[in-house]
């Protein structure tokens, strides 16, 4: 093709047809420019396709993360509700004042469940990847980007609140461990005190009724706080997941 163009130019030059030569040269330049523009357009299209594919991969990964969060929300909330029931029964037996092994199952229930500090760890691998690599910009929908950032920002607040609550209840837990016979009944440590009389250990808890109830009530309050936060985050997760799925549909259309 290049040799053909050179041949045409030489023929026009040898014929001394300068007007046609100039017009032809201009036409040749225009063709070259058009070719370059077409090549750039194709290259841009290919790059955009790559970005769309990367965007799709990230959004699909985030949908999977949110789906996992929703499962975890339900599991943790269910655990919290079981913990609350154990705490309620424990406070009831403390109020009864009956120091017999008949109330031991409800006491054990507190140490097995009520004394647990539930927590929630979000599935945020995709968000961390987007944030640390700077790939957040591949998501073209800026409103969706803001919703994603806000969601994980709220999640940080929930985690921070849970940490504060844990630090708040820890001194009371330590007082219970130090001043009562809790270790003699707690299923994790009771085997270390097999020679101890369980009835005496139960009486000890009743003698420390006020401290035990304050500790149990503190755990109940923490559970209530976390459950409320997780239920709110669950609603946000459902909304964000739906928004991302809608964006994926729009991209693929």
Overview of the molecule:
The chain has one domain (54-252). The two termini are 40 Å apart. The protein is mainly α. It is 82% helix and 0% strand. It is built from eight helices and no strands. The longest helix has 79 residues, at 18-96.
Helix/strand layout:
Layout: H1 2-14, H2 18-96, H3 104-114, H4 125-133, H5 142-179, H6 182-185, H7 198-207, H8 209-252
Helix pairs in contact: 1-2, 2-3, 2-4, 2-8, 5-8
Backbone shape: rod-shaped
**C-alpha-based Rg, rounded:** 35 Å
Helix share bin: over 70%
> Structural class of the secondary structure composition?
mainly alpha
Count the beta strands.
0
Content of β-strand:
under 5%
The tally of helices reads 8
* Main sheet attributes: strand count, strand direction, barrel closure: none
Q: Tell me, rounded to a whole number, the average pLDDT.
A: 85
* H/E element sequence: HHHHHHHH
**What is the count of structural domains?**
1
pLDDT < 50 stretches: 1-5
User: What gap, in angstroms, lies between the N and C termini?
Assistant: 40 Å
Précis, in short:
Helices cover 82% and strands 0% of the residues. With 253 residues, the chain is mainly α.
Keywords:
253 residues; mainly alpha
């Amino acid at each position: 093709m290049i040799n053909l163009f050179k041949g045409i130019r030489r023929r026009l030059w040898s014929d001394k047809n300068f007007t046609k030569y100039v017009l032809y040269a201009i036409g040749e330049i225009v063709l070259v420019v058009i070719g370059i523009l077409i090549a750039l357009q194709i290259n841009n299209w290919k790059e955009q396709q790559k970005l769309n594919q990367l965007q799709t991969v990230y959004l699909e990964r985030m949908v999977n993360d949110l789906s996992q969060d929703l499962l975890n929300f339900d599991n943790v909330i269910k655990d919290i509700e079981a913990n609350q029931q154990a705490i309620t029964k424990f406070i009831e037996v403390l109020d009864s004042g009956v120091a017999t092994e008949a109330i031991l199952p409800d006491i054990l229930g507190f140490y097995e469940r009520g004394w647990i500090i539930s927590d929630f760890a979000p599935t945020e691998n995709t968000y961390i990847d987007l944030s640390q690599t700077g790939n957040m910009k591949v998501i073209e929908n800026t409103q969706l980007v803001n919703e994603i950032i806000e969601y994980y920002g709220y999640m940080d607040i929930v985690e921070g609140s849970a940490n504060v609550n844990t630090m708040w209840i820890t001194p009371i837990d330590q007082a219970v461990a130090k001043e009562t016979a809790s270790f003699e009944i707690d299923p994790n440590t009771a085997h270390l005190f097999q020679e101890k009389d369980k009835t005496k250990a139960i009486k000890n808890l009743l003698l420390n009724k006020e401290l035990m109830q304050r500790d149990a009530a503190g755990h109940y309050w923490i559970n209530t706080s976390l459950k409320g936060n997780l239920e709110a985050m669950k609603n946000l997760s459902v909304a964000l997941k739906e928004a991302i799925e809608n964006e994926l549909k729009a991209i693929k259309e």
